[in-house]
Amino acid sequence: MRLTLLTTLLLASVAVPAIAQAPGQPNPAATPDRADARLRALFHDSDEASLRRNPVQALFRGDMRYADQLGDFFSDQHVADELAATRHDLAALAAIDRATLTSVDRIAYDVFRQQAELNERGFAPDLLAVTLVRPLDHFYGLHTFYPELASGQGAAPFRTVADYDNNLKRNAQYAAQVEAAIARFREGMKTGVVQPKLVVRNMIAQLDGLLAGGAEQSPFYGPVKTFPDAIGEADRVRLRVAYMRQIGEVLNPVQKRLRDFLQNDYLPAARDSVGLSAMPGGAKLYDYLIESNTTLPLKADAVHKLGLAEVARITREMEAQKAKVGFKGTLGEFFTFLRTGKQFQPASAAQLREGYEAIGRRVDQRVREQFSLIPRTRLEIRPVPAFKEKTDAGGSYQAGTPDGTRPGVFYYNTYDLPTRYMWEMETLYLHEAVPGHHFQISLAQEDEALPAFMRFGGNTAYVEGWALYAETLWPQLGMETDPYQRMGGLNDEMLRAMRLVVDTGIHAKGWGRDKAIDYMLANSPMSRTDATAEVERYIAIPGQALAYKIGQLTISRLKADAQAKLGARFDPRRFHAQVLDTGALPMPVLERKIADWVKAGGK
Length: 603
Prior knowledge:
Elements: H1 2-7, H2 35-53, H3 55-61, H4 76-94, H5 103-121, H6 125-129, H7 142-149, H8 161-191, H9 197-211, H10 233-269, H11 282-294, H12 300-324, H13 331-340, H14 349-366, E1 379-383, E2 395-398, E3 408-412, H15 425-432, H16 437-446, H17 452-455, H18 460-471, H19 483-508, H20 513-522, H21 528-540, H22 546-566, H23 572-580, H24 587-599
Parallel strand pairs: 1-3
Antiparallel strand pairs: 2-3
Helix pairs in contact: 2-3, 2-4, 4-5, 8-10, 9-10, 12-19, 14-15, 15-18, 15-19, 18-22, 19-20, 20-21, 22-24
C-alpha cells in the first residue's frame, strides 16, 4: 500500500481493485468480439502500460521484467503520460456497451470508471499546482520508501548476480529522482506552496538517520553483507566494492544534498501552519483528498460531526470496561494508568515478538469459523527497521508475492519500547495481519482469474476499512476476552474515530499540532509518542486517515443490514467471501454488490 501511494503521489489517487469472472461463466477471451473480452483486454493493456510507466510496481509484484528500473516520479513528462493514459482508458471504456456485460464484469466496469474519473480530476491544473511542488514528506517520501527496498530486507529479491546489479542501477536512478525532488521543492518556494516546517524537520531527521555511521552502516550496504550460496567469491568481491563506491560517491552525497537543502534553503521558507486550508489552493485540494480517500463525496463538516458522534459512543464503552476492572478513578485517570502501568509494558522486543506469534496461533484456531477463503501466502512477523522506527506506525503490513516467493510481513514497532503497550497487541494483529490486511490483500493477489491491475490495486476506504472491520471480529475469533485487551480494541477504534475529528480539524478548521495531540490524549489511553506520530502523519498526508472509519462503518452497516434481512440464512463465511472475492471496491460499488447478494438470498 505504501508503494501504491508513492507511485501515485502526484495525483493523490490509488490504483483500482480487481474483479473476478463469475464461476461457471464462459471465458469472454474465447470470443474476441464480445464486450467482456474487450473489457478484459482493456484491463490487461492498461495494467501493462502502467507497469512500463511505473516499473517499481512490477518489482513489488515479483515481476522482474523491469527490475533494473525505478521509474520517473516527478517530471512534467511523467504527469503528461499519466494523464494521457487515464484519458485513453476512459475513452476505451466508453466504447464498451456496459449493458451487454456479465453481472460481475459490470462491477469491474463501474470500479474502473469511478477510479479513472477520480484520477482524471486529480490532474486539474490548480490541484497539480499545490501537489507537484511538495514531492516528499516524512511519511510517503521517496527517501523513506526506497532505502528499505534496496536494503536486502524489503521487496526486492537478492538471489542472483543480476538482482544485485539491477539494484545498483535502481540506486543510480534513485539519486536522480532525489535531485528532481529538490527541483520541485524550489518551484514551490517561488509560488509560496511549501510543506509545513514540522514535516521538513521530520524529513531532515530521517535523512540524518540514513547518513549516520559509515558506508557499511548504510541500509544500501545491506545486500552485500550476506550473499546466497549461488553467488561466487569473485562476484562477491566485485559487488562489495561497487556498493561501497556507490554509497560513498553517489547515494550519501545526494542524500546529504537533499538534507542540506531542506535545512538551509527550504526550512526558512516553509510554513508555520500545518493545515491545508492555510496554504494557497489547499482547501480545494482537501475536498478532493476526502473523496479520493473515502470514495464518497463527503464534506469536511459532515465528517467532523460523524467523528464527534463516534468518539462519544466509544467513550461510553470505555467507561464500561473501566467498571469491569474495578478502577475507581475517572476515565482520564484510567487512561493514565494504562499508559504508565509497568504490567502493560513489554520487558523486551523479544517479548513483543513472542506475544504476536502466540496471538497468531490463537487466531488461526478460530478463523475458519468466519472465513471460507483463506490465503495461501505465508505471513511473517518482523520488527520495523531501525532507521525508520521513530516516525513509523505502531504496526504495518507489506504484501507478499502471489507466487509465494516472498511472504506477507506484519511489522511491529519497538521504538520507545515502554509505550508499545501489551493491551493493544491483539487488536493490532487482527488489523495488520489476520484477518485484516494479510487476508484481503493476499486473497486478491492470489486469484489469477482477476485482471492484473485489479489483483494488485486498491482504494484506501476499502483496504483500511476492511482491516478496521476485521478488528470488530474479536468476539468470534476469541480475542479481547480480558478487559484490558478489550480496551486495546476500543482504543484502536477510538483512534480511527478521532481521526475523523482531528484530520478535518487540522485541514479545514484551523487546528494546530498541539491542539490535535491534546484532543487525542484526552479521549484515549494512547501514549504521547503515538499521538504525536499520528498527528504528524495527518499533517503530512491529509485525508488518508479518514478512510479507515468511513470504510469500516460502511462494511459494518452492510453486514447488519444483511443479517436483518436474511435472518437465519445469514452465514458470515458467505458474507465475508462476498466482501473479499472481488477485490477492493469503492464503497458505492460494494454497497450495490452486497444489496444484490442479499436480494438473491445470501447464497
